[in-house]
Amino acid sequence: MACPERDGAGRPVPVVPRAAHELIDAVIDHVVRAIELAIAQRVRAGEISDRGNAASTYFVDTARIRMLVHGPAEPAPELERAAAELGRRELGLLAPLAASPHALAQAFARWQLTDDDLRIVLVLVAAGLSPRVSRLLAVLGGDPTAPAVVVAAVAAVLAPGEAGVRRLAERVGQGALEVLALVQIGRPDLPLPRLPIAPASPRPTSPPSRS
User: Fold this and answer.
1) pLDDT tens for residues 148-179?
2) pTM of the predicted model, to two decimals?
3) Within a 10 A sphere around the Cβ of 117, how many other Cβ atoms?
4) 30, 93, 110, 160 — which has fewest CB within 10 A?
5) Is the separation of the CB atoms in 136 and 75 below 8 Å?
């Protein structure tokens, strides 16, 4: 978990826990900003289209093939600045979340989630609470008409390109997300980036035996 912010003398800044609805609003706002940045990164890398329809993602010309193979030719300072600002905002979110007495935040503390675990869960929680987040994740995943959130979309929030997919695969396959079965990935017949990902459904419990 990220360290709390400090004042000019290096002392931790006291964190005032937010009301439950304020925390949820802050989580959704942060996830929307993270998705916005990830969409810009994927469009620039040629991984998704900005033409507004799912089919355009699958039509490639010579320039786009070159982009997919070699990546963007020039750096994008504006995206680097946006990523740095998003990181600072994340610190401002995680500190009050860690100090919050509300049930969801306390569960995160008990589960001992890593930062990437927490990012994955927060994206999925936000998608479940906000239709806007769900629509943006569909765009980020490359198909605005998709009914489910896919691995590629959540992974792109963690990091651009293959690095994000690797980080998500590592967290889903081990640690708290695996042990506590907090996340489920479906349809193993598809490549990993295209698989649906969602919070895991509660496991059924056996009915009590009758004597």
Assistant:
1) 999 999 999 999 989 999 999 999 887 888 88
2) 0.76
3) 21
4) 110
5) no
Summarised one tens digit per residue, pLDDT across range 63-102 is: 666 666 666 667 788 988 999 999 988 888 877 787 788 8
For tokens 């929680």, the residue is 125
Residue 173, φ and ψ in degrees, nearest 5? -90, 0
Q: Distance between CA atoms of 129 and 123, rounded to whole angstroms?
A: 10
Question: Mutual orientation of helices 20-44 and 103-111 as an angle, nearest 10°?
Answer: 60
Token readout for 7 is: 């004042």
Question: Secondary structure of the chain in the HEC alphabet?
Answer: CCCCCECCCCCECCCCCCCHHHHHHHHHHHHHHHHHHHHHHHHHCCCCCCCCCCHHHHCCCHHHHHHHHHCCCCCCHHHHHHHHHHHHHHHHHHHHHHHCCCHHHHHHHHHCCCHHHHHHHHHHHHHHHCHHHHHHHHHHCCCCCCCCCEHHHHHHHHCCHHHHHHHHHHHHCCHHHHHCCCEEECCCCCCHHHCEEEECCCCCCCCCCCC
Total count of residues recorded for the chain: 211
